[in-house]
Design a protein that fits this description.
It comes from Alcanivorax dieselolei (strain DSM 16502 / CGMCC 1.3690 / MCCC 1A00001 / B-5) (Alloalcanivorax dieselolei). Pfam families: AraC_binding (PF02311), HTH_18 (PF12833). This is AraC family transcriptional regulator. One of its GO terms (molecular function) is sequence-specific DNA binding. Keywords: Activator, DNA-binding, Transcription, Transcription regulation. This protein has 262 residues and is an alpha+beta fold. It has two domains: 4-149, Regulatory protein AraC (Jelly Rolls, Sandwich), CATH 2.60.120.280; 159-256, Arc Repressor Mutant, subunit A (Orthogonal Bundle). It has ten helices and ten strands. Strands 1-2-8-3-6-9-10 form a seven-stranded antiparallel beta sheet. A three-stranded antiparallel beta sheet has the order 5-4-7, with no helix packed on it. The radius of gyration is 18 Å and the shape is globular. The model has no long low-confidence stretch (mean pLDDT 89).
Amino acid sequence: MPPAQFWRDPALPFVESRRACRSRACYRAHSHRTWSIGVVDGGRSRFTSLGVSRVLLPGTLISIPDEQVHACNPAAGGDWSYQMLYLDPRWLGQILGEIPPRRVEVGRDPVAYAAFCKLNRCLFSAASPALKERHLTGFLRAQWWRGEPLEGEQTGEPGELEAARRALRDADQTIPLDDLAAANGLSRYQLIRRFRRHLGLTPHAYGLDQRIDRARALLRAGLAPADVAQTLGFTDQSHFQRAFKERVAATPGQYRRVAVDG
């Protein structure tokens, strides 16, 4: 099994899955627009978010809201195996009848872990989209949520940053920091401090996260990595590949490939 495999289906655009086996790839602190639910299959990893850190052991489940800055990496010198679902938060709210609490939650529940593994085997199989959707919605409704909130600071974004965040979400190219600050009535240093305080990232890092989110969408649509890099204003292919791998723990080419079992 390759170190990282991805599953997605155009018939189910609200969900994507990955599984990683004995991976040593590391993430930098990042955020994305999808709600993430994952399990640790083997090894030890360290999850960090806004200054809070916790070791995750095999059998651990974790739920991470969209836009939550985080990183999860193998213990020093080691590797780990894990599975992760990425869900459209609007769709998730519709399935559950409400948006879940916006906090990281962690738990170790053998029943929930086994149910997650069964679901992901179904997603990676040749089963019909209808069957996969039934399994997914059944899992979410039955298992949400058996974890405990991660103690410590959680994302608390003031409304004053929404205009700046929206501009960065919508931009295909880098927005000069001075322009972004002026458009929000702040100095560049005020803007950086507020982003760091409330989001855990600089405006530049947050903007890169948004462009990598768009890169994932373009790769899913079938664009070649070189075309994606040019479309999103990366200086060259190596710059794009480095930024992508830091946030996805896979190369654009690896991400573009889809795995189906059986």
